[in-house]
Structures are given as structure tokens and as C-alpha cells.
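Late entry, heme C complex.
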Amino acid sequence: MARGRQLYHSLGCANCHEPNLFGQRLGPPLERIGTVAETRRPGLSAEEYIRQSILDPGAYVVPGYQDSMPRDLGRDLSPTDLGALVAYLLSLK
Ligand code: HEC
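Prediction complete; structure with ligand written out below:
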């Protein structure tokens, strides 16, 4: 969990998913993504949805947002690190 949280910051997720100096965000808030994720796509569990959001952000674009999340964020992650990142996000209920 600590590793996932660390990755969230080191990969720059927070740059888009937390408010900037002007109080704006480029991406949707993730504070409750563990709960929101299971409501997004029928047939995908929360974990599958979060995993897909990182590896293939264009597969589903959250209404009201641009399809502007970088494609390559998950590419260089080891399976262990990807798992840690997903577990961290899942814990945000
Ligand atoms: C350049 C800005 C940017 C960065 C960096 C970024 N995201 Fe995103 N993210 C977005 C935008 C914009 C969306 C909404 C559009 C979409 O669904 O693709 C999004 C959507 C998501 C969603 C789906 C949210 C929902 O409510 O369904 C998840 C999960 C997510 N991002 C996780 C991450 C993680 C984890 C990282 C770091 C590895 C990250 N993002 C980095 C911009 C970004």
C-alpha cells in the first residue's frame, strides 16, 4: 500500500488528479475511486476497471473529461508495482 501511494506520486498521477494552484484538476478526483470504479463499466470489477484506466486510458473516458491521460504510464511498471498502485487506488473508498 505504501509502495502504491509512493508510485502514485512519483508517476505524476497527482499532477492531474489533485487540484493545482488554481484549484483546478485535469482529471477526475480519485479520493473515492475504490467505490466509484465498480460503477463505471458493467462487467468490469473495480480492480479491473482501475487496471484498465492505467494501462489503456482511452478504453473508457469519464464523461466531462478529455481523453488526455498519458498512454505510457503503466507500460514500464513491473507487475508487482502495477499491483501495488491498483491496490492503493482500490483502498480509496
Ligand atoms: C496528464 C494528466 C493525467 C495524468 C498524469 C494521469 N491521469 Fe488519470 N486521468 C486523466 C484524465 C483527463 C482522466 C479522465 C478521462 C479518462 O477517463 O481517460 C483520467 C482518468 C483516470 C481514472 C479513471 C477515473 C474514474 O473516475 O473513472 C483513473 C483510475 C486514473 N485516471 C488513474 C491515474 C493514475 C493511477 C495515474 C498515474 C499513474 C494517472 N491517472 C495519471 C488525466 C491524467
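The domain at 2-90 is CATH 1.10.760.10 (Cytochrome Bc1 Complex; Chain D, domain 2). Will revisit in the morning.
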